[in-house]
Design brief:
It contains 20 helices and 32 strands. By secondary structure, it is of the alpha/beta class. It has a seven-stranded mixed β-sheet with strand order 17-30-31-32-28-29-18. The radius of gyration is 31 Å and the shape is flat.
């Protein structure tokens, strides 16, 4: 990470815009308030060169960005437009001009997602900073919904960059009038506009120091990353960014029976999907030699012993607080059996290594936990080199300390084992690592146990770990969830230690607010029972009109709509119309129904009507979607999903197999408009009057349907 010094006068505070751009650009600023510093602020580069002036510094920081390469450097026109916004932005700081500036930018953003071009730029961050810095004045305007385009744009930036910008708004709006610090302060990226960030942000990581925090995200490679793991990963990143620290990704690969390279590869894909910025990737297996040395050291010090007690008996003795018959074996006997374990001999396979802690401790995790077990299975990384493997309880406190981890974040379900973690580090003679707990993320109607998820995969109940019914990152993204929504959902919960059972509807509602303003609109008609409507005064020759895919967002592009004399209506719509009724054909105009033809069974088979384009859409009851009768319509399969289980929350002693949902997937045949043959896998769209969908299988050839996955919107009653 690039590091610079920012010099400011002792009676001033660094502009929020500078700190915000720095943090988004992943640049570390060390702020020095000093009596001799000039105004405006000065940026001191690593080679001693000094740059002066806010806009000069903003441009330079934008050019140095590695996380977003085009933050400032664009083509000639867009770079000039960014410069224009940098010159304009200070108008927000003039009280009498504030609302006028809001009104201007609101109008400018009517058909735009960003101020310049199609991606985030320094211009967006600077204008955002002035709004955020206004505190309650901007908050009241947001609540009034007076400037909806500006509020939408502001919320988008705040959400997508919450991890690095939240602290800025919280600190600045709370403390913008306080006196500046007189001592050196370290800030990663953005902090607050008018306030130097304290070396201890308002987060309760114990004994955390700015710039020295080192965290780790340590998944076991025995499955794909799911939404529960996502919270742990994002919380690690959140605190690392907040403290200008770093995150290590470490694979806890100590159980060869469950782990594979497939899981390692896909976990890395999922971590990238979540946008986790990590320092490096390590493996617990990297430390197997040192772990074995530590085990031998503890044996020789009388702090560990070899036990051949049968597993069930050992568990009972631990529950009852009864010492093992092997607890007081000599060091020589323990070392002899340890070597048997290392060789994987028949005798060694009967043994395990246990820590000698306290068999009478009320906290049962301290009752001589197992440190090592024999396992002759090959390891996915190192093959058959080892016949013994450390337990998580033994390896984790060791590797955490050795790798320089300062704070180990883990969910509160491990609370009773915290004392064990600290005791093992103490026996090892290692540096203490602080544990910080947060509540585990639990979702209704959802299983998060990798063992249970594996059961669904192995028994063919789902199509794989990326099945859209699964709570894995790949599964929910395939369902249509935007990562920005997941990040916002998790960060809204914060680092709370309260156990909560969360509703999916809240997450999908956040998702809807992200996709609705930008996703293109298309039309599809259900295949079954569709009815042809003949418009007697309709066009004898079909004609094409190019219309926006989204009436309020030009970035969605355009589509070609064909208008014909005969059009398709859905069966439900056709049966809802009465003779003589005036209806609205969406994106065309009104029509009056003249005739309804039915088959022998009374089912509507054909409709006849006339266009009445001069009619008012305000007077019609029915606004109907339709498709032209042309050969280019796209066969489409609409897929709806349900929850995998029928119970909101499983009890501890309840078997999930007893509450399996027998119907979790429904496929519906439909016809889509001709423009849908251009959809790509992963595209998000809205089908008029049907909801939001994600394209899972795009158009390949005529006759083979495209596949669209239904995306919940947070309002509908859904079982998935």
């Amino acid at each position: 990470m690039t590091e610079f010094q920012l010099l400011i006068a002792s009676d001033e505070t660094p502009p929020l815009s500078l700190l915000a751009v720095a943090r988004v650009a992943a640049v570390s600023l060390t702020v020095h308030p000093t009596l001799t510093a000039p105004s405006p602020p000065v940026l001191v580069l690593t080679n001693g060169t000094k740059l002066r002036g806010v806009n000069v510094l903003l441009r330079y920081l934008g050019r140095t960005a590695t996380t977003i390469p085009s933050l400032y450097e664009r083509d000639v026109l867009e770079t000039a437009q960014i410069d224009e916004w940098l010159e304009y932005a200070p108008i927000f700081s003039i009280g009498s001009e504030y609302e006028g500036a809001c009104k201007y930018v609101d109008g400018y953003l009517l058909h735009r997602t960003f101020l310049v071009g199609q991606s985030l730029s320094v211009a967006d961050i600077v204008v955002w900073s002035y709004l955020a810095g206004a505190g309650k004045r901007w908050e009241s305007l947001m609540k009034s919904k007076k400037y909806q385009n500006l509020a939408r744009w502001y919320s988008m930036i705040s959400t997508e960059h919450a991890a690095v910008l939240d602290q800025l708004t919280a600190t600045y709006t709370k403390k913008k009038d306080s006196a500046p610090a007189k001592t050196k302060e370290t800030v990663q990226g953005p902090s607050s506009n008018k306030q130097v960030v304290s070396s201890r942000p308002e987060v309760d990581l114990p004994d955390a120091e700015m710039g020295k925090v080192c965290l780790r995200f340590a998944p076991e490679p025995s499955g794909y990353l799911h939404i529960g793991h996502s919270k742990a990963a994002l919380m690690n990143q959140y605190f690392a960014q907040r403290y200008n620290g770093k995150v290590i990704v470490r694979f806890d690969d100590t159980n060869p029976a469950k782990e594979s390279n497939e899981f390692v590869d896909n976990l890395l894909v999922d971590i990238k999907t979540l946008g986790i910025n990590y320092e490096k990737v390590t493996y617990t297996s990297d430390y197997f030699p040192q772990l074995m040395e530590m085990a031998e050291k503890l044996i020789k010090e009388g702090k560990a012993y070899i036990d051949d007690t049968p597993r069930e008996q050992m568990q009972k003795e631990r529950m009852d607080g009864i010492d093992s018959k092997c607890r007081n074996n000599s060091v020589d006997e323990n070392m002899k059996l340890w070597k048997e374990m290392i060789s994987g001999s028949e005798r060694g396979l009967q043994c395990c290594l246990r820590g000698k802690l306290d068999m009478q401790d009320p906290n049962k995790s301290l009752r001589d936990p197992v440190y090592y077990r024999c396992n002759p299975m090959p390891h996915h990384r190192i093959g058959s080199k080892y016949k013994i493997y450390p337990t998580y309880d033994f390896a984790c406190p060791f590797v955490d300390s050795i790798e320089g981890i300062t704070h180990a974040l883990r969910s509160s379900e491990y609370h009773d084992r915290n004392a064990q973690y600290y005791r093992i580090q103490e026996d090892m003679g290692l540096r203490k690592v602080h544990i910080y707990e947060f509540s585990r993320l639990n979702m209704v109607y959802t299983l998060l146990s990798k063992r249970k998820l594996l059961w669904f995969v192995q028994n063919g109940k789902v199509d794989g770990w990326d099945d859209a019914r699964f709570p894995t990152v790949q599964g929910i993204v395939r369902r249509g969830l935007q990562i920005e929504a997941l990040i916002q959902f998790i960060l809204e919960q914060g680092a709370s230690k309260n156990l909560n059972l969360m509703e999916w509807d809240k997450l999908w509602n956040i998702n809807k607010k992200i996709i609705d303003p930008v996703c293109p609109r298309h039309t599809a008609i259900l295949e079954e029972g569709r009815v042809l409507l003949t418009l007697t005064n309709g066009p004898e020759t079909p004609f094409v009109r190019v219309v926006p895919k989204h009436k309020k967002y030009e970035g969605a592009g355009e589509k070609a709509t064909t208008f014909t004399k005969k059009i398709w209506l859905e069966h439900a719509d056709a049966t809802a119309i009465s003779v003589g009724e005036e209806i609205t054909l969406m994106d065309w105009g009104n029509a009056i129904l003249k005739e309804i033809n039915k088959g022998p069974d009374g089912i509507v088979t054909e409709l006849v009507g006339v266009l009445h384009l001069e009619g008012s859409v305000k007077t019609t009851k029915l606004k109907l979607t339709w498709l032209p009768e042309i050969d280019e319509l796209v066969p489409t399969t609409l897929v709806e999903f349900g929850y995998l289980i029928t119970k909101k929350k499983l009890e501890e002693d309840e078997d999930f197999v007893d509450v399996l949902n027998p119907s979790t997937k429904k496929e519906i045949a439909a016809l889509g408009d001709a423009n849908m043959r251009n959809l790509k896998r992963g595209d998000i769209l809205q089908l008029e009057r049907k909801g939001y969908f994600r394209c899972d299988v795009p158009f390949i050839r005529p006759g083979k349907p495209i596949v669209l996955y239904s995306i919940p919107d947070g309002r509908q009653v859904t079982k998935g």
